[in-house]
Amino acid sequence: MTSRLDNSPDDPFKRLRDRLRLYMKEEMVGDKLLDLAKDSCNEFLRRENIILSRTEQSRLLRAVLQDIVDDMLNEL
Length: 76
Description:
By secondary structure, this protein is mainly α. It contains 3 helices and no strands. The longest helix has 22 residues, at 54-75.
């Protein structure tokens, strides 16, 4: 018996996932989400009057986004 989630090329779930991933890349969903997150981070730092180097900003944003993504995945 074959699992719906097996990763063989003829797996319908994998084909659907691949098509959705391509669609979301074409729609630049990742870029839009990243832009939104960067804008939110910059606005927060500005309001809090916190100055960080680009490296520190990137590190902070990466950590917060990882937490957010983990939370989102747990909700699914």
